[in-house]
Amino acid sequence: MLLNNINPLENVTLSAIVASIPIILFLLCLTVFKMKGIYASITTLIVTLFIGFFVFELPHTVAIGAVTEGFFQGVLPIGYIIVMAVWLYKVSNGTGQFDIIQDSISGISQDQRIQLLLIGFSFNAFLEGVAGFGVPIAICSVLLIQIGFKPLQAAMLCLIANGAAGAFGAIGIPVGIVDSLALHGNITALEVSQISILTLPILNFFIPFLLIMILDGLKGVKEILPMILVVSTTYTGLQLIMTYFHGPELADIIPPLLSMVALAIFSKYYQPKKIYRVTNQEVIQPKKHSIKSILYAWSPFYILTIFVMIWSAPFFKGLFAEGGLLSSLVWNISIPGTMNEITNKLITLKIDVFSATGTAILLSVIITILLSKHFKFSDASKLLGLTIKELWLPILTICFILAIAKIMTYGGLTGAMGQGIAKAGHIFPLLSPVLGWIGVFMTGSVVNNNTLFAPIQATVASQIGTSGPLLVAANTAGGVAAKLISPQSIAIATAAVGEVGKESELLKMTLKYSIGFLIFICVWTFILTIIL
């Protein structure tokens, strides 16, 4: 039994400082020492183990269990979802469906403000939902360039627009990962998702207005105000409903899809008097496609939506729960010698492949292949190999970061930091989003940010008597604000638009918006803690 000592140095402040060394080290490795994420996480894991063993007296068996659990969860369910989501995108590209999707979006209007709403905002959010990990920034910025936008301008607009989708990217993993962290107070992903509706919809509703204002000023906002309202209202309203009643998985899939449909229908009956063009270059007319072709092109993604909705439904989850009809397909492997006072039970690995969200995506891939006349399973297998080759390192990095988070939790380091930070008292919620902003700026990932800092937010919340889900949601929202300027996002954007070497210029273009979002989130979170 681990006698959990969150104050081993008999000084709360000093114990908290020592406990925070792994996180500080990780951030320094990424920034000052310019280490790659994988090397930074390995280095931090070694130091975390050292501190856990020699300062917090963490038993070796619990440490081994924590690392094992971190790696296991990094692969299943997180890595599984990531690989399947990106594979689905690559398959839709391989079948030629994605080209038709692009044409169907570009053909709705020749006004480039409307095209920015369709491609830069809605399609960007949709790709964040089905793939994430830089895919929406890369694809949408290139699409905008193809229709006449300047390279850095396209990159900046896509980075800002991505702020509306980053919290629920790649099938909701940034929030969904909360269920894997065993947070203080048994905070669930659904609770975080539900309370996020108090903050994120305000930002998300405002971002389309901001995009048009940046592109064409207040005059542009006035000229296409009905279009902006259609997109903002549809996207924000549906995402609010999805996140509250369903959870994070489909929050970046159904809302952006239907916002595109709503704008496409509205555009048939209303177009601005003046057609706005960024430049005077010749308008490239997209290819015309039949309704049947367009419906087929979009089929991978509405098939995905149907499967994810089924997989996320309570009745389906109940089939695999204890005593459920298919509970025999779920295996729980307990690791001996890992009983500890944090969980009051053995560390257990839950092998649950059939009800995993990744399996829902896998079935979408299989049906997409079957529906294609020319694309074979052998072609898809090659793309799967390419996907794994591209993603194994990011997934391994996530595994190491999860291992660090588990050791910090089971070893009492998170508790020590929480107790130290709690000394800030009721002013902490004002600073809570800043922690998330720093986390994403340094790691480039809202998933990694929540893995590192959500346990701290939850622990501090319990110690100062405020809502744990609210502070975890604030951590997520603060992280989303940092996606606009994280080195990883900036690097992807400049590479996609062929402007490598101009990272600092792009950073200057997005920085003020990132800080503006952060200030709003900080003040609003503080107000919410007073109201709630």
Automatic annotation (TrEMBL):
The chain crosses the membrane at residues 12-33, 39-58, 70-89, 125-147, 154-175, 195-215, 227-247, 253-270, 294-313, 351-371, 391-413, 425-447, 513-531. It is found in: Cell membrane. Keywords: Cell membrane, Membrane, Transmembrane, Transmembrane helix, Transport. It comes from the Bacteria. InterPro entries: Lactate_perm. It is a multi-pass membrane protein. Uptake of L-lactate across the membrane. Can also transport D-lactate and glycolate. Belongs to the lactate permease family. This is L-lactate permease.
